[in-house]
Amino acid sequence: xxxxxxSCSSRSRPDRLxxxxxxAAMLLTLAAGxxxxxxxxxxxxxxxxxxxxxxxxxxxxVAQDLERLAREAEGEDGELKINLSVADGRxxxxxxxxxVDQFLxxxxxxxxxxxxxxxxxxxxxxxxxxxxxxxxxxNRQPVAEDIQRWEQIxxxxxxxxxxxxxQGQLVLEAWQADQARWDRNGDGVVQYAxxxxxxxxxxxxxxxxxxxxxxxxxxxxVEKLASDTANWNRxxxxxxxxxxxxxxxxxxxxxxxxxxxxxxxxxxxxxxxGLEPPLVVGVDATAPxxxxxxxxxxxxxxxxxxxxxxxxxxxxxxxxxxxxxxxxAVDLEDGHYVWLPYRQITRETLAEEGQLPLPAN
Length: 361
Known about the structure:
- It comes from Pseudoflavonifractor intestinihominis.
- By secondary structure, this protein is α/β, with parallel strands linked by helices.
- It has 14 helices and 13 strands.
- It folds into two domains: 5-158 and 305-330, Rossmann fold (3-Layer(aba) Sandwich); 160-304 and 345-352, Response regulator (Rossmann fold).
- It has helices at 16-32, 57-72, 93-105, 121-131, 144-147, 160-177, 179-182, 202-217, 234-248, 260-273, 287-295, 306-322, 326-329, 347-352, and strands at 5-6, 44-51, 81-88, 110-113, 135-138, 153-157, 189-196, 221-229, 254-257, 279-281, 301-303, 337-339, 343-345.
- The chain has a seven-stranded parallel β-sheet, sandwiched between helices. A four-stranded parallel β-sheet has the order 8-7-9-10, with helices on both faces.
């Protein structure tokens, strides 16, 4: 099947300028809706993609990968076209619900939803079930009871507790390899600060819990100096880190961050303060974070597989469109879940993959 993508933008990288351009193009896409034009309607698969915000680097990357994978599949079939309509929820559930209503009213065949507020999933699911439109949630996981409301509800993402554990292990390995460097006061205790994603977000809660648990399970003693939410945002994290540096200075030995954008914000604040950097770790493995890992300012990150999420969603969309068993297209757990593995990224793994010179011994 040939698949040609009509998207709401042509993004090259997830930076602020691209996000603004995407938002403007999105308005044009929503105006046209999910329906195809002209006589090709029967051969057009209409997919509504609702993002919680396009300012999130990782989410923007997932959307770009989804569009790219659909375009790359163009030569596989001479009949089917894929029309992707992407909407920016701007971190507002009411806005996103309005966008979903528009997708449904304009005849979308499948919805891919990165929901703003996971507690609002039931309302969205009921709307989609009434319209007979399957929903694929991704990266922001609704509660299990909501996923079970209808057989055509799916979730694609990674297990947040696994990401937290791997992040904690990054700190553990660095601490054990060079404790004299990181244990600044020599007391054998890991003094840390925690940048959390947002209040009540499952990934934020689990990454926070399991990152620290990885240290305590290994027998390390820890002390939390500071912890607060920065809503996955680099600027908010920078502001928060500046406050903590004024209070604690170089007493902070480790900075855990629930995602890379916030980790980079912490590094921005540390660099501006001119202080010796602590051990900073993130999650997502975004392009800017990989640059920071290569440069040595970010100790490591945990790959949240944006391309894998996009690919699994596209496989599900195509299977549903063909009337095939989704379990034949993707590895489904409990009939609803596609779980993708996390993976640690350090300078050493980048070197092994040929993305930078091998570090000196």
